[in-house]
UniProtKB/TrEMBL annotation:
It comes from Synechocystis sp. (strain ATCC 27184 / PCC 6803 / Kazusa). This is Slr6007 protein. PANTHER family: SLR6007 PROTEIN, UNCHARACTERIZED PROTEIN YJGR-RELATED. Residues 44-97 form the Helicase HerA central domain. InterPro entries: HerA_central, P-loop_NTPase, T4SS_component. Keywords: Plasmid.
């Protein structure tokens, strides 16, 4: 699933530093241009995570695409695209839908011996499904047992880390198991029916292709519940992969527009908390900060505020420490940019104005 990557050169050696005004520390003409004289330099900020908040028509998507495009010139970029509008030049795009050849396997195991294995992944998935599909406690427990049994049938056990290297099961295994269980268990039949739409789409049964230097996963054709499960699986796999590679300067940045589609994903919380250590950055965008977990917001050093709906003004002002008046006076593609304690107002250079091949 992951292309073999050469050991990255430290970003600090790839980005030439310039002296910057004391009130705005990240100004680097060879970094990532946000707008005017404001640059984002992943080698100098406290962490490589970013957050963009903006209402409909504010320029949020164009801002996120612009930053992703510039970042892709420095490190690898992965994009989880819920609306199908994040395309970039030179990308490798996987369209995940009923008719595509590519899929996503949520049952891929985290190979970290101290924090991975089939049992942990089964627990994580059972909790995710319970929240996303509104399963009852009995159904959640039965699904947990089913996940564990799917691993068992493939010869994968928590006690044998060597077995984690075997080909993991996918949702074809889960469907077959639930059909067997349903013959004698009414609860298993109810659970199978609850998951029938997922099985019908088949996206979790197909081969998952590898990440490349600039990879976009287009989930636009999936219903919201499947989008959430697919997006969480991709984010979780990225974090697990980077943990195994060990501590590093920035290797990869994950970009997600409309973060509300993922809910308050535990996978995103882990990236925000620990990704910097392992060379993984996270940029999320949404119309409201309420769609982004407290852990992600707390651990995000760079924050961009574009115009928001008037109903969001009080919350946005409190969350990002700007005045309501300053936010209310923003025009589309105007942003209040905060790097830690320092802030400024900037006119965004959107993606459509960037020099692209």
């Amino acid at each position: 699933m992951f292309a073999s990557n050469p050991k990255p050169r430290p970003l600090v050696n790839r980005l030439a530093h310039t002296q910057t005004p004391s009130n705005f520390p990240v100004v680097n003409r060879e970094g990532v241009l946000i707008g005017e004289q404001i640059y984002w330099n992943p080698a100098t900020v406290a962490n490589p995570h970013g957050c963009i908040i903006g209402g409909s028509g504010a320029g949020k998507t164009q801002t996120l695409k612009a930053i992703a495009w510039e970042v892709s010139k420095l490190v690898e970029v992965a994009i989880i695209d819920f609306h199908g509008d994040q395309e970039l030049p030179g990308e490798k795009v996987y369209h995940i839908n009923m008719t595509s050849n590519s899929g996503i396997n949520p049952l891929v195991i985290n190979l970290d011996q101290e924090g991975g294995g089939p049992n942990l992944r089964a627990i994580e998935l059972a909790m995710l499904f319970a929240k996303t599909l509104r399963l009852g406690s009995n159904q959640q427990g039965k699904l947990l047992d089913a996940f564990k049994h799917c691993y068992f049938r493939r010869g994968i056990s928590q006690e044998s880390p060597q077995s984690w290297l075997k080909v993991p099961p996918n949702f074809s295994d889960l469907e077959a198991l639930l059909e067997e269980m349903a013959e004698e268990d009414k609860e298993a039949e109810k659970l199978r029916l609850k998951l029938s739409t997922m099985f019908e789409y088949g996206i979790f049964n197909k081969t998952q292709p590898p990440y490349e230097r600039l990879t976009r996963w287009n989930l636009a054709k999936l219903p919201p519940q499947l989008q959430a499960i697919a997006g969480d699986a991709l984010a979780s796999q990225l974090m697990s992969h980077h943990r195994l590679l060990g501590e590093s300067t920035l290797r990869t940045v994950l970009f997600i527009d409309e973060a509300k589609e993922l809910g308050h994903s535990k996978a995103l919380d882990r990236i925000a908390a620990d990704g910097r250590k392992y060379g993984l950055g996270l940029w999320v965008a949404s119309q409201s900060s309420r769609h982004i977990s407290k852990d992600v917001l707390t651990n995000t050093f760079t924050k961009l505020i574009l115009p928001v709906d008037s109903s969001e003004l009080p919350l946005t002002a409190r969350t990002f420490r700007f005045s309501e008046e300053a936010i209310a006076n923003l025009n589309p593609l105007e942003s209040l940019v905060r790097f830690g304690k320092n802030a400024n107002k900037v006119n965004i250079v959107p993606f459509y104005q960037r020099n692209t091949p």
